[in-house]
Amino acid sequence: MSIKIGVLGAGSWGTVLADLLVNNGHQVELWGNSQAIADEINTAHTNRHYLPEFEINPRVHASLDLNETLQDADAVLFVLPTAAIRSVAERMRPILATLPKQPLLISATKGLEIGTHKRISQIIADEFPEALAKRLVIFSGPSHAENVATHDLTSLTVASANLKDAEWVQSIFMNDYFRLYTNDDMVGVELGGALKNVIAIGAGILHGLGYGDNAKAALMTRGIAEISRLGVKMGANPLTFMGLSGIGDLIVTCTSVNSRNWRCGNALGQGQKLDDVLKNMGMVVEGVGTAEAAHELCQKLQVDTPISESIYRVLYEDADIHAEISKLMQRDGRNEMEFVN
Ligand SMILES: NC(=O)C1=CN([C@@H]2O[C@H](COP(=O)(O)OP(=O)(O)OC[C@H]3O[C@@H](n4cnc5c(N)ncnc54)[C@H](O)[C@@H]3O)[C@@H](O)[C@H]2O)C=CC1
Ligand SMILES: O=C(CO)COP(=O)(O)O
């Protein structure tokens, strides 16, 4: 089965996924917002700003023309930063309205929208007709682009309210180095992918300050506890957080130098200023915006997420990192099995 897929976002993850899909025998149009990068992908078959060592399959075609990307597409894969999803969806809507065939929508983006606190599926639901938005598939799990580029073994989760759609996405992506599992818990899969980015900033901070393995293991374990607490309040299945899109993604993001969120935290721990870190990164650090959205969401829902709250204060209130760590360590003693606030 060969199909056409429009991949939206010619950054690290979009470029590697476009390459993987072409390797799997599909036709791919990779849509971006930089003419220089599109030209480089089409002529030199590289995207050096994002992936300096990577040779892209020459059959990946890049374009700045959204109309061309959406024409005849069987599926459209969002791999844009969270902040760009709504405006790109608005641009897509009139184009899709003229097409005889509606593509399946897939999101590989991990974040919560600032201001609305919405998940990507909720933004899509706002922006597209119900029939199209209802068939969205969420694509998430432990997967650094740099590792997939070298065909390192990778397993992810695809979640949809429609199992058949998740299975179809599973079939177009799977190959001998890329394995997908289906799940029907979209809320849990989306929240795991978004909220782990905040905790990964914390893991980077601990590393930058020189803390060791015990501290990082504690952060990850108590991190997944608070992600699950918020998730359950929002209707997620708690077992989803034990899966690839939960603990799996938290582990990879909290332990890898490939993680932009971890690198951001590491630089903060070493004393750099957030504005400088973000400027130098040159790629999206989703945990920063998601920390703000999660902070407001937790206040609204009255869910206790002490680690994410500390990270929020470091990012947005210039709180002293050492004081925040002391506060976390000196909270009243708790029973580990308590799940309530
Ligand atoms: N890089 C990775 O290994 C992984 C990233 N993700 C997620 O995928 C999403 C994208 O991440 P990356 O590819 O790493 O980001 P990136 O920063 O490498 O690339 C994002 C791309 O989107 C483009 N862009 C931004 N606004 C745009 C707009 N309005 N219209 C068109 N293009 C626009 C940027 O120019 C850039 O080329 C994020 O939500 C991230 O959390 C998920 C799994 C792995
Ligand atoms: O989601 C990711 C890995 O699964 C990518 O994380 P970073 O955005 O921190 O690089």
From TrEMBL:
Gene Ontology BP annotations: carbohydrate metabolic process; glycerol-3-phosphate biosynthetic process; glycerol-3-phosphate catabolic process; glycerophospholipid metabolic process; phospholipid biosynthetic process
Enzyme Commission number(s) from the entry: 1.1.1.94
Binding site for NAD(+): G9, A10, G11, S12, W13, G14, A145, R260
Keyword Nucleotide-binding: yes
Pathway: Membrane lipid metabolism; glycerophospholipid metabolism
UniProt binding sites for NADPH: S12, W13, Y50, K110, A145, R260, V284, E286
Membrane-crossing residue ranges in chain numbering: none
Keyword set includes Lipid biosynthesis: yes
Domain Glycerol-3-phosphate dehydrogenase NAD-dependent C-terminal: 185-323
Molecular-function annotations in GO: glycerol-3-phosphate dehydrogenase (NAD+) activity; glycerol-3-phosphate dehydrogenase (NADP+) activity; NAD binding
Keywords assigned: Cytoplasm, Lipid biosynthesis, Lipid metabolism, NAD, NADP, Nucleotide-binding, Oxidoreductase, Phospholipid biosynthesis, Phospholipid metabolism
Active site residues of this protein: K196
Domain Glycerol-3-phosphate dehydrogenase NAD-dependent N-terminal: 4-164
Main function: Catalyzes the reduction of the glycolytic intermediate dihydroxyacetone phosphate (DHAP) to sn-glycerol 3-phosphate (G3P), the key precursor for phospholipid synthesis.
Name of protein: Glycerol-3-phosphate dehydrogenase [NAD(P)+]
Taxon lineage: Bacteria, Bacillati, Bacillota, Bacilli, Lactobacillales
Gene: gpsA
